[in-house]
């Protein structure tokens, strides 16, 4: 599906039928391709997998989304490495890289170092799987099948139409399949039927490796013929040597931004590095660095890797802690520094860290700095956008959601939804709350706040906020000022998919949360617990209490500033009168903590610091 920008460019493309060229390559590694019109090429032979034992129908494809991973069923040799799982893109490609998707505007080139990499583009175009299985009648299907002998995988796109801005939102029909064969490590594309045209978007056919630096482009802007096949084959052997160290991810597997408390314990940077080449690597330096918005260095650390065999990975934990004291946006950069590295584009990952003051009642969580640099609306007025949030502590109470609206030409309304991360693989799942904002009440050039009637408590994991259009013309603001959170989503049909520009753009969606512990004190005024002393302490802390009313089943939990319980115990079945509570904190690392006391009729919270 197309997105509508404030500034629209008209692009005229010229399309053709398949070119006279019947072969191509080799690429730097040695892959070549031949088509079914070439004497050395494959014979077109469509394989109907829909009725084969073990065939799996993929029912979660939509407009512009990626689903998976799915098992290949065997180790498939691809370039100088092997892969055992894959992802299916609704726009006519599969990939082995978990990060990113391909959507309009399409890249028009292959290979490409931009995410995603490790892509097999059989017919990458603006294909629409939305409304499949509903009354609209979109006939598109998708199946995959692994042979009983675990020597081949077939992925078939069936009757898949192009997207169009109309009702229905699809046109044409395309059936094509990808075949991976382990016996010769080949990739075969087959095209059964092709009718209709795209909406001025590139059609891309080709393959690329895990860095996007090597691959073969078969064609661009060209419709494949019906009953046509292309065979991509590797060399019998390759002398191509690749010395390549990469950052697989930093901080978390999705390279996503996150929130930290500016009043909490220190944070240690982490990164997973990989040998993505085909040569053994001697130890090399890995650097972690954090700077603020005006490029002032906050912390830097260097660690040596181990020697890494091809395909090996290693988790690096940097020793120097990051201990923020102000609420602002920081940039964490992890970099491999291998001399003679073949692919500099995968040597670095940049992560956004947003620190917030957790001592205030209302804490605003948002990834952007409040400056609107663009906006987005979906043609047809039925799409949406979303952001994933990683709380700075647990539990939190969400009290408010808000979206920055830039335009509302036809006075359309919108809704904001709060969703749990209990979907497959931590995806958006249960809708925890949904609030509608009517068109005439929408504020332009400002955040539109909606207050939850009942605060929602998040005790672990992440949560999502989705913004849903209720008609054409309403647009949400976006921000492209680095760092970028890499946690933005586009919502088309009923599907959430990583936003096609998530590495360069954040949506202006925010939430207000509260710390349910903040300000908690004795519920009954005739009971109290005094402040911690000595504070800070390295061994024992003490708290004096005065309970005029008996306190039953009093226990305590100690939380670090990320909300993790680090100590707990029950103190007494019945406390009455005055006395002193003694706690041993000698085993706790240096940092700031909160101790919470709970009983059947009282709750108390006190903060303390451990020093050594």
How do the strands and helices of this protein lay out in sequence?
Layout: E1 3-4, E2 23-24, E3 32-35, E4 56-57, E5 66-78, E6 81-89, E7 93-95, E8 119-124, E9 141-146, E10 152-163, E11 170-181, E12 186-195, E13 204-208, E14 215-220, E15 228-233, E16 245-250, E17 258-261, E18 267-275, E19 285-292, E20 297-304, E21 313-322, E22 329-337, E23 348-356, E24 363-365, E25 374-378, E26 384-389, E27 396-408, E28 413-420, E29 431-437, E30 446-458, E31 463-470, E32 474-479, E33 488-492, E34 495-498, E35 506-507, E36 509-514, E37 527-529, E38 540-560, E39 565-584, E40 591-598, E41 603-610
Parallel strand pairs: 17-23
Antiparallel strand pairs: 1-25, 2-3, 3-15, 4-9, 5-6, 6-7, 7-8, 8-13, 9-10, 10-11, 11-12, 12-15, 13-14, 16-18, 18-21, 19-20, 19-22, 22-23, 24-36, 25-32, 26-31, 26-33, 27-30, 27-32, 27-36, 28-29, 28-31, 32-35, 33-34, 37-38, 38-39, 38-40, 40-41
